[in-house]
């Protein structure tokens, strides 16, 4: 018996091709191990400025919340901000798309 794998689901990722972050280094969005609090705040603010004008910010945010992305700034939300949103959710709540 031969089983077939489902086709690629690339449409779920197509929004990433439009992201403003594509022209910015990943170090703006992801914390290096040696980063202090003040540096983290500055880096996160820089990432949020990129996200603020991004045409796919809401899709990015929805992805990060739905997949419980543990690292980085996604859709203008930091790791802690996403964690706080998820903790406040009730079972069955729709994942928020805007803060």
Automatic annotation (TrEMBL):
The entry sums up its family as follows: Belongs to the WhiB family.
Query: Which PANTHER family does the annotation name?
Result: TRANSCRIPTIONAL REGULATOR WHID (PTHR38839:SF5), TRANSCRIPTIONAL REGULATOR WHID-RELATED (PTHR38839)
User: A biological process (GO) annotation for this entry?
Assistant: cell redox homeostasis
Concerning InterPro entries, the annotation shows: 4FE4S_WBL, Whib
Chain residues that bind [4Fe-4S] cluster: 21, 51, 54, 60
Alphabetical UniProt keywords: 4Fe-4S, Cytoplasm, Disulfide bond, DNA-binding, Iron, Iron-sulfur, Metal-binding, Transcription, Transcription regulation
Q: Name one GO cellular component term.
A: cytoplasm
Q: Which organism is it from?
A: Kitasatospora cineracea
Q: What is this protein called?
A: Transcriptional regulator WhiB
Query: One Pfam family of this protein, by short name?
Result: Whib
Q: Relate the protein's function as given in its record.
A: Acts as a transcriptional regulator. Probably redox-responsive. The apo- but not holo-form probably binds DNA.
Q: How is the cofactor bound?
A: Binds 1 [4Fe-4S] cluster per subunit. Following nitrosylation of the [4Fe-4S] cluster binds 1 [4Fe-8(NO)] cluster per subunit.
Q: Where in the cell is it found?
A: Cytoplasm
What molecular function terms (GO) are annotated for this protein?
4 iron, 4 sulfur cluster binding; dinitrosyl-iron complex binding; DNA binding; metal ion binding; protein-disulfide reductase [NAD(P)H] activity
Report the residue ranges that make up the 4Fe-4S Wbl-type domain in this protein.
Answer: 20-84
Q: Which cofactor does it need?
A: [4Fe-4S] cluster
Q: Which HAMAP family match?
A: WhiB
Q: How is it modified after translation?
A: Upon Fe-S cluster removal intramolecular disulfide bonds are formed.
């Amino acid at each position: 018996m031969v089983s077939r794998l489902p086709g690629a689901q690339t449409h779920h990722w197509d929004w990433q091709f439009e992201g403003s972050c594509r022209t910015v280094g990943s170090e703006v969005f992801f914390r290096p191990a040696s980063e202090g609090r003040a540096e983290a705040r500055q880096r996160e603010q820089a990432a949020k400025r990129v996200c603020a004008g991004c045409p796919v910010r809401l899709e990015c945010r929805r992805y990060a919340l739905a997949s419980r992305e543990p690292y980085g700034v996604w859709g203008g939300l930091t790791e802690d901000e996403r964690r706080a949103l998820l903790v406040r959710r009730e079972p069955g709540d729709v994942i928020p798309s805007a803060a």
